[in-house]
Amino acid sequence: MPISNLRLGKAGVATRVSLLAALMLFVGLGALSLGLTREAGQELDREVGRSLARQQTQVADMLSLFDHTLREQATQFLNLFLAAPELSAGFSLNESRRVSVAGESTPALSNGASLMNNDATLPDQFTARTGAPVTLFARDGQDFVRVTTSLKKADGERAVGTKLNRDSRSYAQIMASLRCCWRWRWPAASTTYSDA
């Protein structure tokens, strides 16, 4: 007998109860399935959020460690450069004596009797030994001008005659060091200056 011909009115109590139980079971399982699916989706969203937060923390920690390592390495290179026997005479700046560096008039920066402006011998030697670039700046008023460097631009020319960006962290650190001291000295081993 086809289902369409079934009449619940003629069905027995057992059949009615069975159909009602089946319907309630179907609705109950459907509701339970929807609830579990929704809860599983929310838990998955929470787990993804926690995972992203962990990854973000790990990346931040890794970048912090990388930054710390680079700062330590820069400090070690600075100390290594300053410890070179060729620099034992010490640096001096003569603001009244001007030297043209890449078309810019700059104060004379000397190491003992040796003029450092436009002389890349020591920076090149250091870079050849260590692989680390060296740039020497001379203070000119409120600016710091690159007077010699081992760095070369894309065209092969030395990257000299330009000023340290006043908005850079390096400039702020150097100026803070100058304000707190009567005379600026080479930074302590724990101090680094980067052009970031």
Q: How would you sum up this structure in a few lines?
A:
This protein is of the alpha+beta class and 196 residues long. The protein has helices at residues 13-82, 121-130, 169-180; strands spanning 91-101, 104-111, 114-115, 135-140, 143-149.
Describe the structure.
It comes from Salinisphaera shabanensis E1L3A. It holds the Pfam family Cache_3-Cache_2. By secondary structure, the protein is α+β, with helices and mostly antiparallel strands. Among the domains are: 12-72; 90-164, no CATH class. Helix content is 47%, strand content 17%. The chain is built from three helices and five strands, in the order H-E-E-E-H-E-E-H. A three-stranded antiparallel sheet has the order 1-2-3, with no helix packed on it. A two-stranded antiparallel ribbon has the order 4-5. It starts with 12 loop residues before the first helix and ends in a 16-residue tail after the last helix. Mean pLDDT is 84; it is low at 181-196.
Q: Overall pLDDT, averaged?
A: 84
Strand content: 15-25%
Task: Kindly report the spatial arrangement of strands forming the biggest sheet.
Answer: 1-2-3
Compute the separation of the termini in Å: 86 Å
Task: Tally the helices.
Answer: 3
